[in-house]
Design goal:
Elements (H helix, E strand, L loop, with lengths): L2 E4 L1 H4 L20 E4 L13 E7 L1 E4 L4 E4 L2 E4 L3 E9 L3 E5 L5 E12 L6 E5 L2 E6 L4 E5 L15 E5 L3 E4 L3 E6 L3 E5 L2 E5 L2 E6 L4 E3 L2 E5 L2 E6 L4 E3 L9 E5 L2 E6 L4 E3 L3 E4 L2 E6 L16 E3 L2 E13 L4 E3 L2 E13 L4 E3 L2 E4 L3 E6 L4 E3 L1 E4 L3 E6 L4 E3 L5 E3 L2 E3 L3 E4 L3 E6 L4 E3 L3 E3 L3 E5 L9 E3 L3 E3 L3 E6 L15 E10 L5 E5 L4 E5 L5 E7 L8 E6 L2 E2 L2 E3 L2 E3 L3 E2 L2 E7 L4 E4 L6
Parallel strand pairs: 3-7, 6-8, 7-9, 8-10, 9-11, 9-12, 10-13, 11-14, 12-15, 13-16, 14-17, 15-18, 16-19, 17-20, 18-21, 19-22, 20-23, 21-24, 22-25, 23-26, 24-27, 25-28, 26-29, 27-29, 28-30, 29-31, 30-32, 31-33, 31-34, 32-35, 33-36, 34-37, 35-38, 36-41, 37-42, 38-43, 41-44, 42-45, 43-46, 44-47, ...
Antiparallel strand pairs: 1-2, 3-4, 5-6, 39-40, 48-52, 49-52, 50-51, 50-53, 53-58, 54-57, 55-56
């Protein structure tokens, strides 16, 4: 048998290139063992022990199974094939020998009026196999009857042992008491199709939840997918690979005490009724939430949430995917660090679009719409983490395409900004108490293209430590939304033609086309035959409007107008 011994410092080696590894000291790590073998996923119909349900009658001819009225108890490891309809009863697994118990569901409908229809109380390992093309349904009671001093089971499919659910059939689970499917150990779901409804959590693997090559649909009043072992530092993680996941939950969509890792697949998550609602102070309705790391390498991810869409108490890394976010609170929030390496990210609704202490953007196509700050590099005093000594909010832009539309600050960094490449476009605030670009430390730009429009009262541009020239233009009056501002070199070369979508009085920009010693003209109004993308014209010809002023580039930062703020 292959025995995968996974420690926390080994597990995180699976993080994709470009993501920081989640590490802890080995001496602090408690070992989590996942046993998985190819034999777990095969069964022999000729040797499997038949168990047949007929109403409240259970028929079986094997000493490995005892029947007491409407309850069948499996006492030994082996393979059992279950068929028929159990209108009120239970299949209990309580084995005394080592080995795996395989329950092959082949067209089963199971209901209990007093407990969990499937209760795996004691087994070295259990595997539920959904027979090819079979449809199976499990429904529990809304109230359970417990033995004295007991409070388990608490899910329609409940296991105290490591559980695998597999097979090319389909499983419907109705959790009327609490959870739909729950394992107090680990849970692996592979190559199968599951639909759940639950009054609390949809699917829970306490130590871990691994979902591979499966189709999962969840409607839950609590959390959708959950792993919540708080007592073991290497437990409490969720891995999803090559799966189709659809979640509608009253609580968090996907919640892990430690890590959430998504690779390939397509996910749709709605929490708390969506972004038109606001989560109450005593509830959590985040889309994807992790105590440590969220890693995204998906195909598509759609999140509509009453709180943060992506949330980590530590680190978020996005490597790929078509990601669509509508959030009542933050779109992407990590307490310590966010890395965006690639992918297409559209945040169509948020309070703050992207927020963390450290924000690094290496690539990707990012669009943010926010009612407050678009991108917020926030933090308290200097903190020491695995990422080094981190001061109060810093942002590093090495590449990518970023377009921000914000009612508050477009980009608000409590520390410093470094921009080495990429494109940044900001349609910023109209309120003079905010600005398109706002930083407390320094802003060094060495490459890329920046253009940002907003109010003039607090306007800032890149600083004098930059190696690429910048301009800060504060106009004498507010210009109406849609008024083109075009900057041309004296020889007619267009540096930038910008059509802000909101009223504006300030423009901050930087481009390699701002050349030292050259003279430029600024025009307001006019028209362009170019292609308008996020307010910036590409190509085409500009027809002059009214010439506002001319200027020469004599230093790293050229300021025009009343630019009292440094």
């Amino acid at each position: 048998m292959r025995n995968f011994r996974i420690l926390i410092y080994i597990l995180t080696a699976t993080l994709s290139a470009g993501c920081e590894k989640d590490t802890i000291n080995k001496s602090e790590s408690n070992e989590i063992t996942i046993t998985e073998d190819p034999s777990d996923y095969v069964w022999n119909s000729s040797s499997a022990i038949p168990i047949n349900f007929d109403g409240t009658t259970i028929t079986v001819a094997s000493s490995n199974v005892s029947v007491n009225g409407n309850k069948a108890t499996i006492k030994a490891a082996g393979e059992y094939i279950i068929t028929g309809t159990l209108t009120d009863g239970q299949l209990l697994v309580s084995t005394t020998n080592k080995g795996t118990v395989k329950l092959i569901l082949n067209g089963v409908s199971m209901t209990s009026f007093s407990s969990a229809p499937i209760f795996i109380a004691d087994a070295e390992k259990a595997v539920i196999i959904l027979a090819d093309n079979s449809v199976n349904t499990v429904t529990d009671a809304s109230k359970y009857v417990f033995a004295s001093g007991e409070d388990e089971p608490n899910a329609a499919v409940f296991s105290k042992s490591e559980l695998i659910i597999y097979g090319y059939g389909e499983l419907f689970v109705n959790g009327n008491y609490n959870d739909a499917i729950s394992s107090k150990d680990g849970l692996i779901i592979k190559n199968t199709k599951i639909n759940t409804e639950a009054v609390d959590d949809g699917i829970r693997g306490k130590d871990y939840l691994l979902i591979y090559d499966s189709s999962i649909k969840i409607s839950a009043k609590g959390d959708g997918l959950k792993s919540d072992n708080e007592s073991n530092t290497s437990a409490g993680f969720i891995n999803i690979k090559s799966s189709e996941i659809n979640i509608s939950s009253g609580g968090d969509g996907i919640s892990a005490i430690k890590n959430v890792d998504i690779e390939d697949g397509n996910l749709s998550i709605i929490t708390g009724g969506g972004s038109s609602y606001t989560a109450s102070s005593n509830s959590s309705t985040k889309g994807i939430k992790a105590g440590k790391t969220v890693t995204i390498n998906c195909e598509t991810l759609q999140i509509n949430t009453a709180e943060d869409a992506l949330h980590s108490d530590d680190y978020i890394c996005i490597n790929s995917g078509e990601i669509s976010i509508s959030a009542s609170d933050d779109g992407i929030h990590a307490e310590n660090k966010i890395d965006i390496n690639d992918g297409s990210i559209s945040i169509s609704n948020s309070y703050e679009g992207i927020e963390s202490t450290l924000i690094t953007i290496n690539g990707g196509n990012i669009h943010v719409l926010s009612s407050d700050d678009g991108i917020n590099g926030a933090g308290g005093a200097t903190i020491s983490t695995q990422y080094g000594n981190v001061s109060s909010g810093n942002m590093l832009i090495n590449g990518g395409y970023i377009a921000v539309t914000a009612a508050g600050d477009g980009i608000d960094i409590n520390g410093s900004i470094t921009m080495n490449g990429g494109t940044v476009i900001v349609h910023g605030p109209t309120n003079s108490g905010n600005s398109a670009i706002d930083y407390d430390g320094s802003f060094k730009i060495t490459g890329g293209n920046l253009i940002a429009a907003g109010s003039s009262g607090m306007a800032q541009a890149p600083g004098t430590s930059s190696t690429q020239n910048a301009l800060l233009l504060n106009l004498s009056s507010v210009q109406q939304a849609g008024t083109i501002l075009c900057i041309q070199k004296s020889d007619g070369t267009t540096v930038a033609c910008f059509k802000p979508i909101k009223d504006y009085q300030s423009i901050a920009m930087s481009s390699v086309l701002l050349e030292s010693g050259s003279t430029y003209n600024i025009y307001l109004g006019g028209s362009s035959t170019g292609t308008l993308i996020d307010g910036v014209y590409e190509g085409g010809n500009y027809t002059w409007g009214t010439k506002y002023t001319s200027f020469s580039v004599s230093g790293v930062v050229t300021k025009i107008g009343n630019t009292g703020r440094p």
